[in-house]
Amino acid sequence: MSADQYRPAAGIMLLNRDGRVFVAQRLDTTLDAWQMPQGGLDPGEDAEAGALRELEEETGIPARLVEIIARSRGELRYDLPTDLAGSLWRGKWRGQRQVWFLMRYLGQDDEIDIETPHPEFRAWKWAEPRELPDMIVPFKAELYRDVLREFADHLSPE
Questions:
Q1: According to the model, what pLDDT value does residue 55 have?
Q2: How many whole angstroms from its chain centre is CA 52?
Q3: Which Gene3D superfamilies does the entry mention (predicted)?
Q4: Do residues 63 and 37 make contact, with C-beta atoms less than 8 angstroms apart?
Q5: Which of 18, 98, 105, 134 has the fewest CB atoms within 10 Å, i.e. the most exposed one?
Q6: What is the CATH number of the domain that holds 23?
Q7: Structural domain span for residue 69
Q8: Closest CA to 74 of 156, 148, 147
């Protein structure tokens, strides 16, 4: 599969002081699914800059309130289900290829504001890392297992 069939993107696994992960529910779905912040990169945008931009756009958390702990060794991918592939992103992409960043949140919970100028989420919470694959939409579960493997050395053993 060619990399150009996948939308370039960045993802953020944001940890709080207790080692729990920020997850949120999207506004555009009624599913009881939770996801980590992620989004497409602008043309020519560096993955780290894109990750920090997406984090602020989606959660209201500015770069000054996070510390980057690790970056994925390469790109992680997921494929869209057939029923979404033709409609999402005007059918241009079959999925996403993402560079993931593990970040530590340095702020307080009351500084998180998902009511951004262009909101994407209706609710947020902190979750245990091991819970992530069961919280996301099924077609991204393997991606989340890959993210957990990628950052396993930095996550607290349970």
A1: 97
A2: 11
A3: Nucleoside Triphosphate Pyrophosphohydrolase
A4: no
A5: 18
A6: 3.90.79.10
A7: 3-154
A8: 147
> Distance between CA 121 and CA 27 in Å, rounded?
5
Q: What phi and psi, each to the nearest 5 degrees, are found at residue 69?
A: -95, -40
E strand segments, the chain: 6-15, 21-26, 38-40, 66-71, 76-79, 95-105, 121-127
**Averages of pLDDT over each 10 residues, the chain, 158 residues:** 78 97 90 91 96 96 98 93 61 82 97 94 96 93 97 85
pLDDT at site 20: 97
Record the pTM: 0.91
Instruction: State CA 56 to chain mean position distance.
Output: 12
Neighbours of 64 (CB within 10 A): 9
Going from the C-alpha of 111 to that of each of 36, 37, 128, 154, the distances in angstroms are 17, 16, 21, 24
pLDDT score recorded for residue 58 = 94
Q: Burial code of 20-33, b = ≥16 C-beta within 10 A, e = fewer?
A: bbbbbbbeeeeeee
Within the chain, residue ranges assigned H as helices are: 47-59, 82-85, 132-135, 141-150
